[in-house]
Structures are given as structure tokens and as C-alpha cells.
Design brief:
Blueprint (H helix, E strand, L loop, with lengths): L6 E11 L16 E8 L14 E5 L8 E11 L2 E11 L4 E4 L2
Antiparallel strand pairs: 1-2, 1-3, 4-5, 5-6
């Protein structure tokens, strides 16, 4: 089991761009004005607000000596007295691990 102390939650900061970059018709074209994800801030995570999309970034530190295989766990989000629980699976190979929600 990975202890809660090995899990870090970050607030995703957004930046409002009022005017897009010039479009030179290249392969990396600008998206224009709007709100864009900018930084992950290691700040106290504010409570969730109903009806508002609020992304969170979660880092889970997997022990360096974890052997290859699939590691199963669960996540729980609690808000307003309600809970939502779902599966979390981390698949570790011999050279790296990749994690995700299935």
C-alpha cells in the first residue's frame, strides 16, 4: 500500500490570454484568446464548488523498488457530504511505470 504521505495534490492555475499570437500558418498554430492551463501550484487545495469544472493534478510516488506488474488502488472524492470512488491502476514495467484511471 502506498501511504497518503506519498500522494501530493496540486491546484491547476489558469491564465487568461486576451489576444492570441500571430498565425504564421506553420505546424504549431496558435489557439487564440481564452483561458489556458499554466502551472501546477503546490498550495492548499480549496473545496470543490458545485457546478464548476475544477481540475486537480495528483502525483503518486511509487517506490523505486516496486517490481513489474499492475498495482490496483482506489481514489475517493468527497464534497458536500457525498463521495465518489473509482479505481486507480498503475502498471509498472522493468524500466518505467505508467499510471492512470481505468
Amino acid at each position: 500500500m502506498i501511504p497518503a504521505a506519498k500522494v501530493a495534490e496540486y491546484v491547476e492555475h489558469f491564465l487568461q490570454v486576451s489576444e492570441g499570437s500571430p498565425d504564421n500558418q506553420g505546424t504549431n498554430r496558435p489557439l487564440g484568446a481564452g483561458w489556458y492551463a499554466d502551472a501546477l501550484l503546490p498550495l492548499p487545495v480549496p473545496p470543490l464548488t458545485a457546478g464548476l469544472t475544477q481540475p486537480r493534478w495528483v502525483d503518486v510516488s511509487i517506490p523505486r523498488d516496486a517490481g513489474p506488474g499492475a498495482y490496483n488502488g482506489a481514489f475517493t472524492v468527497t464534497s458536500g457530504g457525498q463521495e465518489l470512488t473509482g479505481p486507480f491502476i498503475s502498471r509498472c514495467g522493468t524500466s518505467r511505470c505508467r499510471s492512470g484511471l481505468d
